[in-house]
Amino acid sequence: MRDDIAIIGGGIGGLCLAQGLRKAGRNVTVYERDRTPGDRVQGYRVHIDPNGARALHDCLPPELWQAFLATTGRGGQDFGFLTEQLGLLALIETPPAADPADDHHSVSRITLRQVLLSGLEDVVRYGKTFERYERLPDGRIELFFADGSTARADVVIAADGGNSRVRAQYLPHALRVDTGITTVAGKFPLTDETRRLIAPRLSDGPNSIIPPKGMGMFVAPHDVAGLAPVGGIGVTEQDGALMDNSSAYILWAVGAARGRFPGDLSEMSGERLRDTVERMIGSWHPDLRRMVSLSDPETVSLLPIRTSIPIDPWPASTITLLGDAIHSMTPMRGIGANTALRDARLLFQALTSGRETVEAIAWYEERMREYGFAAVRDSLNAARQFVGESRLGRLGFKTFLRTAQRFPRLKEKAFS
Q1: CB 169 within 8 A of CB 132
Q2: Using one digit for the tens of pLDDT, what is the confidence trace for 151-161?
Q3: Do the beta carbons of residue 198 and residue 82 sit within 8 Å?
């Protein structure tokens, strides 16, 4: 197939797919609404699991795969479940994989975007805000952009995020809704001095903090201390602590049902958000309160939690979707970016398999819907558990975790 392929949106999934198609010699163009590569970069870490790592390995040229590995954060991947007083409920050990493509990695979103954009200078068109499309008599698709320009393609791939305009036109019944859950996230700087202020477990690996009811906290270290940038990847020209991708930190996020937060939360500055969270966790372990209070307010952000609603299969065509454009999910299982990368790898395989185009897309969509919407449901359940209001339910979950910690075979079966 020599189709002209248009990808709407230059996020993680869209760029990974573009890298794979470019490597395979396919004619691909990415239309990105940002005016420059540095617009709207996100400053927090992202966890890359084996699905995401395998996608990056298979889609990236070898030199960019090595650049990705060279700029990921160090630190353990053992996942801890802790009480709000830092009592250990369970520790889920995750030994390193023999092959980095089957392993877990921590990477700055800024750094990952730098990797994914490398070598695509002639592929990505900036300042192209997609508005609508029209099918032409010859079967091609005409794309219309806000700047008045147009483009034509044989295949259109929506990778334009949870508010996808392509999805709104193509699958208008595929809705994305507010969960009623809100999180506030920030960065606690990791230095030799600040490490001494907190329990070692908080900087050893990711942890879920489970208070009696109604709230949850997630903390995860991103340790890049001493890592050297590779060809400009791993540094940023943007000022400020939020956009700094060269310093070590612990990402923290506190979530609750919206009614537990003050009503003017959306109007708060970073400093007020930080102070609000500190008051809400005022009875928790001092180390957790210290992590919040010592975070630069510039790094503190409000993150409302939304989710897509799974829909029934639709007939395949020369338009398809990946990532949040079709299966937006809550972040409580940490698999949104990895599912988008999994989509990119699968769609890359489909479009380079030699199948007829619509047949290839049908093959991709059948599989994507199965694991993608399963991830949506699992992530929503995890979000509800994260902020669960039932004290009895929390007590039962903690009892299960303590029991699993005592019996390794049960823990292995429950968390494998």
Answers
A1: yes
A2: 999 999 999 99
A3: no
